[in-house]
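sorry for the late reply, my laptop died twice this morning and i had to redo everyting from scratch. anyway the thing you sent over, i finally got around to it. pasting the sequence first so we're on the same page, its 353 residues, then the predicted structure underneath. double check i copied it right bc i was rushing
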Amino acid sequence: MSASEISMKSTNTTISPYSTPLMVDGNEASKRSSDSVTDSQYWRYDVSTKRQKHGAGSGDKMCFKFVSSGTCPREENCHFQHDMAAREQFMRGVCFDFINKGKCERGPDCNFKHSLQEESEGNADRRRRSDNASARSKECWFCISSANVESHLIISIGENFYCALAKGPLVKDHVLVIPVEHLPNTIALSQQCESELDRFQNSLKKFYKNQEKEAVFFEWVSKRSTHANLQVIPVPSSKAAAVQNIFNFAADKMGFKFEVTKFNNNLEGRNSLRTQFDKNLSFFYVELPDGTILSHVVGENEKFPAQFGREVLAGLLDMAKRADWRTCTCSKEEETKMAGDFKAQFQEFDPNE
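ok and here's the structure:
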């Protein structure tokens, strides 16, 4: 069903008991102001005291996946609430943090509304735009709610990110870390999302380290990107020291030089990337095993191959024939087995287990 059909009122609806006087033993109890719609609805999203809401989870917090997309892959196993009223408010442009916590720490930097909204012509227009965006995301390969998502490749699901094996992988443990929300890059996400991404990155590093390999992370952020994916490719520890040299060599061939910075941890490095990122330009960066970050802002008229990161690592690993993912696709049965094997080995490192 479309969002508009779901939210359509039936002909036999009754007046909300929260907007009329409550009678107890024939006497009128404490009144709520009938002209204060926000006040009469706010109880649904106030999490200062514990209440039982309808939905899959038994906790106080809303499930972002359900609120933003209308579905949740964990269904009855989800620990968060699947609240359709919260989803309606989100679709009307209300800030998710305000809906979930009653406040938003981003303040004036937040682009969403911080009050509950009644349906209006303006909100109806926003809803139509949201429906159009939802329709686009349903065609996206990386949206969990999409019919096109390769769900058999998913190996771990968090609150803001999920991990999946790459389709047409360069190596068998080639992983993608993907935002649950339909967003064009991982750099402009909130600090809360960055913390979860940091946990995924550290878990993957430990997992590969256990196999005598090192993790290389890279992301191609194009102005035309639709759904972000941070690629993670393990390289043998014996070749880790050569990664920076081969990327610099490839950059020289392309006619540019990387900006080089080094940090003690992922969060520091990614905070630095935010300062370099310009949403009006394309951007490429690679995080090396020793904490070094190589980044390049792609000029307006500069030609830059979308598969640059993969092509460079294919050269390092002597796998030139696997530089294009389309030549490396496997059958669904083979992919399912690879994902099952990976999950079994990754389980002790998985931050969501």
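The first strand starts at residue 23 and ends at 24.
thats about all i looked at so far, will dig more tmrw
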